[in-house]
Amino acid sequence: MYKILTLNNISVKGLSRLPREDYEITSEASHPDAILLRSFKMHDMDIPESVAAIGRAGAGVNNIPVDKMTQRGVPVFNAPGANANAVKELVLAGLLLASRNIYPAMKFAASLEGTDAEISAAVESGKKNYVGCELHSKTFGVIGLGAIGRRVANAASALGMKVVGYDPQISVENAWRLSRNVEQAINLDHLFSQCDAVSVHVPLLDVTKGLVNKSRIESMNDGGIIVNLARGGICDDDAVLAALDSGKLSAYVIDFPTAQLIKHPKVISFPHLGASTEEAEENCAIMVADQVREFLEDGTVTNSVNFPEATMPRGGTGCRVTIANANVPNMVGQISTILANAGLNIADLLNKSRGDLAYTIIDLDGNIEEASLQALRKIDGVLAVRHLPNK
Ligand SMILES: NC(=O)c1ccc[n+]([C@@H]2O[C@H](COP(=O)([O-])OP(=O)(O)OC[C@H]3O[C@@H](n4cnc5c(N)ncnc54)[C@H](O)[C@@H]3O)[C@@H](O)[C@H]2O)c1
Ligand SMILES: O=C(O)[C@H](O)COP(=O)(O)O
Q1: Are residues 22 and 118 located together in one domain of the fold?
Q2: For labelling alongside 185, which of 13, 27, 273, 312 has CA 20 to 30 A away?
Q3: Ligand 2 atom with least separation from CA of 79
Q4: CATH number assigned to the domain comprising residue 40
Q5: What is the ipTM of this complex?
Q6: Same structural domain for residues 346 and 288?
Q7: Is the pTM of this model over 0.95?
Q8: How far is ligand 2, taken at its centre, from the CA of residue 115, in Å?
Q9: 138 and 58, same structural domain?
C-alpha cells in the first residue's frame, strides 16, 4: 500500500487515478511515499525520509525545496501547461478590467439609489468618470512565452493588439504554436520601451526577481498597464506604486496581493486565482497523480523539474531497481558489478542524466536481496535506490 500525503486540496478527479486498494491518501500520513500539493510552502517543512516523489498539481515549484530534493534523489513533478488556459483567461480579464475601469464603474452602478428614472439619470451623468481605452491597436509585451505566455500572446493578437514577445529560451513547441503576428523583442528594455501594457509569465528565479523595475516602467508609454499573474517579486512593487501615483502607469493587475498593494486604488488584486478553475484543477491533479503513480510503481519519470525523462517498458523475469545518483563516471560500472556479484542478470537498462543527476532503471532476471540493495546504496554518489517488485 502506497501512502500519499496531501498538503493542499487536490481535485478528486486526480486523486481517483490512485486506486484505493493500493493507495492511502490523507493529509496526515506520517511515513508517506509521496507528497501531492499545490501552493503549500514546503521550505520550512521537515520532509520525511520515506518520501520518494513530490507532485505539484500546478506549474510553479518555487514553494518546494527542489535542490534539497535533488540531493536526496527525489524527483519533483509538476503539471506543465495544465492550468495555462485558465491563467490566460484571467490575464485577458485583468487587461479588460484595467483598460475599461470596470471595477470602480461597477461599484458606482451598485451604489446608485432612487427610482429607475433617477438611476438612469445618474448613470448617464456618471459614466464620463469611467471612460476607458480599447486594447485594439495597443502594443502589448509578453515576457516568457511558455505554456501561458504564448497563449496570452496569441489571444491578445486575436483581439487586435500589437504583441511583442521576449523569451530567450522559448521551446520549439511553443515557438511553433506562437502566432506569426507576435514580434520578437531583442531584449527586455526593447520590449518595455514600445509597450502600453506588459504581462509577465516567467518563473520566480533569482534572475527574474525585480525584472519589472523603475527604469523599464519609465520607458513605457504613459498610462501603461502591468499584469503580473506569475509571482510576487517579479515586479519591483515600490517602483510600480510610484508609477501608479505619478500616472505613468494606470493599473497594476496582480494575483499575489500584499498589504502595501491592496490599499492602492489603481491596483487590481486577485487572490491567487489564476489556476482556480474546475478544469485547471482537474487537469493539474490528473496529470500529476498519473506521473507520481507511474514513478512509484515503475520508476517512470515524466515532467519532472529535476530528473531526466525516463521511460522503459517492464522487461526481465524478476524485479526492477531504480537508482538516482551523481552524474559522474563509473556509476553504471559499479552498479553492474554489484549485480553481477549477486548473480543477477540485467535484462534491460536505461541510464539518463540531467545536469549533476543521473537516473538508472534496471530490469533483472531474478529477485534482488536486501544485501545487494544495501551495497548499491553504499556506492559513493548514490542518492536513492528503489526496489520495484514485478507486478
Ligand atoms: N497565478 C497562477 O495561478 C499561476 C498559474 C500557473 C503559473 N503561474 C506562474 O506562471 C509561471 C509560468 O508558467 P508557465 O506554465 O507558462 O511555465 P512555462 O515553463 O511553460 O513557461 C515559462 C517560460 O518563461 C521563460 N523564461 C524563463 N526565464 C525567463 C526570462 N528571464 N526572460 C524571459 N523568459 C523567461 C521560459 O523559457 C519559459 O518559456 C509559473 O512559473 C508560475 O510561477 C501562476
Ligand atoms: O504555479 C501555479 O500553477 C499556480 O500558481 C497555481 O497555484 P495553485 O495551484 O495554488 O492555485
Answers
A1: no
A2: 273
A3: 3
A4: 3.40.50.720
A5: 0.99
A6: no
A7: yes
A8: 45
A9: no
Tell me, yes or no, whether 36 and 144 share the same domain: no
* 174 in the same domain as 107: yes
Q: Above pLDDT 70, what percent of the chain?
A: 100
Q: How far is the CA of 153 from the centre of ligand 1 (A)?
A: 13
φ/ψ of 118, rounded to 5, equals -65, -40
Total domain count for the chain? 3
Q: Give the closest ligand to the alpha carbon of residue 256.
A: 1
Please identify, by atom number, the ligand 1 atom nearest to the C-alpha of residue 256.
Answer: 1
On the question of pLDDT at 391 being above 80, the answer is no
Based on the domain organization, do 123 and 203 belong to the same domain? yes
> Phi-psi bin for 108: left (phi > 0), alpha (psi -120 to 50), beta?
alpha
CA-229 nearest atom, ligand 1:
1
Domain co-membership, 147 together with 247: yes
Q: Are residues 289 and 357 in the same domain?
A: no
Q: Whose CA is nearest to atom 37 of ligand 1?
A: 169
pLDDT tens profile 291-348: 999 999 999 999 999 999 999 999 999 999 999 999 999 999 999 999 999 999 999 9
Q: Which domain holds residue 284?
A: 1-82+275-307
List all residues whose CB is within 6 A of at least one atom of ligand 2: 38-39, 58-60, 83, 272, 274-276
237: pLDDT confidence band, cut at 50, 70 and 90?
very high
- Cα–Cα distance, 323 to 331 (Å, whole number): 10
Question: How much is the pLDDT for 29?
Answer: 80
Query: From ligand 2's centre to the CA of 61, what distance in Å?
Result: 9
Q: In CATH, what number is assigned to the domain containing residue 380?
A: 3.30.70.260
Instruction: Please report which confidence band the pLDDT of residue 282 belongs to, taking 50, 70 and 90 as the band edges.
Output: very high
| Cα 242 to chain centroid, rounded | 30
Judge whether residue 102 has pLDDT over 90: yes
The per-residue pLDDT for range 27-39, each reduced to its tens digit, is: 998 899 999 999 9
Q: Which of 38, 89, 273 to mutate to test the pocket of ligand 2 (most atoms within 8 A of CB)?
A: 38
